[in-house]
Write a structure and sequence with these properties.
heterodimer; A: two-stranded antiparallel ribbon; about 50% helix; globular; B: globular
Chain lengths: ~300, ~475
Amino acid sequence: MKPFFKVVLTTLSILIIGVFTIEYLYKDYKTTIDKKFDAYNKQRSSQVILIGNSHVGCLNEPEFNGKTSFNFSIGGQDIFHFYTILKTVLEQENNIELVIIGVDYDLFGYDYKIANTMWLDRTYYKKTKSLYDSSYSNKIMASSAFFRSNRDFSYLFRGKENIADSQNIKEENKMFTPIIGSAKDRAIEHSVHKFDVNLVNSNVSYLEKIIFLTLSKGVNIVLINLPKHNNYYNNYNKEVIEIGKKEFELIRNKYQVPVFDFWESPVFNDTDFVDGDHLSEVGAKKVLSIIEDSIINTQTHNNVYTIID
Amino acid sequence: MLFNSIDFAIFLPIVFILYWFVTNRNLKLQNLLIVVASYVFYGWWDWRFLSLITFSIVVDYLMGLLLGKEENQRKRKILLLVSIVVNLGFLGFFKYYNFFVDNFVAAFSFFGRDIKANSLNIILPVGISFYTFQTLSYTIDVYRRKFEPTKDFIAFAAFVSFFPNLVAGPIERATNLLPQFYSKRVFNWEKANKGFLLICWGLFMKIVIADNLAFYVNTVFNDIESFKGLPLIWATFFFTFQIYCDFAGYSYIAIGTAKFFGFDLITNFRQPYLAVSFSEFWKRWHISLSSWFKDYVYIPLGGNRKTTIATNFNILITFLVSGFWHGANWTFIIWGLIHGLLNILSRNVTKIKTFKFIRISFVFGITMFTWVVFRANSINDLIYFFTNFFKINTSKIIGLPTMERSDFLMLIIFIVVLFIVDILISYFEKQKVKLYEKTFVLSILSSILLLSIYLFGSFEVQEFIYFQF
């Protein structure tokens, strides 16, 4: 048996040394969510939290309605992640008064498996301690710095630059980089390829959990669906629009939560977009000002926001 | 339990230690351990499946004993028929019931007579097609007096349920595997080393190549009408390698695992994409199934002993049945039919003398397009594919929004690596080079494979494709 054990032990030793070396090299790796939390922890005392996917990333003004704000939006993030982040943040922070969540229609049926974002999910684990798939093999991967980096080999050549980035709050708040692509392709990608109608119930349940969570902490919540370019929504799956509108209506009626649906808003033009589904700085300011104008802080004891029609 | 899971990585060393260090003095105890381990392995999916395999073991064990004792040919035929009916009955019910019901309803409806028959919500027990064929081969061989029936129930149970090849083959013959359960096992380090290398290579094929390709392939084939042109062709090209790496990877792990316990399973794949003809392809692809159909379907039908027309007919029937074995869907039947026709052509058309590379490329190219038939979810998808794959938009090389160019390049590199390794294996076999005898080389090779899995593998655990069959 000796030669066999020799082979197995040598192989496993090389493997273990290799794995530990790689883990060591990646130990300081900061994922996007790590950087977000670093920036958030430095800023502290945020009163308004904005959260969504890359579409919401542009709403990154340091103040909203006269209150300090922080934007937790990350590309590819879904409702489950909004929930886990907000849960983590609300457990740490008492000053939050308002949460603004960007929910696109297609997020109601977002299929993370098709979207191949299992790796993205693992990047959250260190901060949120939650995973879509909580099997121990997935937890092991989520605890590995190398896997959390999504095997970002280019990091080995970037090194320290990555760490320095995370210390720059201003830059972190402007981390959003729009994805330039054809509006038609992206509309199909979002509303056809990555959409599974069977997932609507579970995604809605996460949204409901967010509503319960915020309300139980006395925090107000606003849902927004940001405007999209004509080229984008003309190619968007009509069934997904119907589902989205229906779910927004149900939530609005059931929980009296304000919903700003900009889907068919006529006030946005070409200069308001950088591509089919991402707002430009001008467009973002326009959206924020509409929301700010529409919300009246009643300044009552329970601090309720209402919409002006 | 999946070979590519942490559960199996824990399970295998435990069974190995118990086998060689605790039960090694008693053969019966070793066999019993294999049965228990196999039941744990199989029950890991769903413990209810264990009742089916137990029933199959008991029936075929008894039928074997009765066939051995019985001299009356008529009674022997009845006993064989009982075994075939029980085994194929289970298989037919779990695998084909809904297919037949749906098609009967559709056929009656086509002729204007609506009948009511409800499909059942049946879960297909994993590996039922594989162990059913394995047990069937036992009773048929005993019936043909090729093999003495075993009286050792534990050895027979171990033969049927042997966990390395239980759920996706290689489909073993009693003549090869069962006698191995009778003889005392002595640990052979060369065999174990070879097994270790096969396991590492099998895992690499599955986790690094097949599972990475699966993402692209599934995205296209599960929503085929959203794609045209190049994405369809790339998905077909990738599926050609996905299915090879998925299934051959499983077979290598199975053969390697069996070697850890001192068993030799039959070779199931021999570099199939290096075949120079379609008949040769089937001598290299899923060899255990091809030889099963040859021995138990093709030859009983008459094989090539009669006229050319009869031989061609027998080939066609064998491939049709083989296609249907893969699944209860018309796509598999058509796939079998196409391969039957290709084999007939391959036998009857005079071979054109040309470079080996051109012949390999030709066989590979045609085989690739037959995989579309195999992979398509329905006949409609199949029609869609063949009416849209040539609508190429040259501005998009990859044509799939969810795939990065770097990932795409990585997949191509893996496929090139696979081809190189296949050519090297073929060369080493000819030169009789035994890598597994050189422990240092073996350790380095295994380490490279395992580290590659860590660095590039897809760890969203995916079941093996052949489990569904």
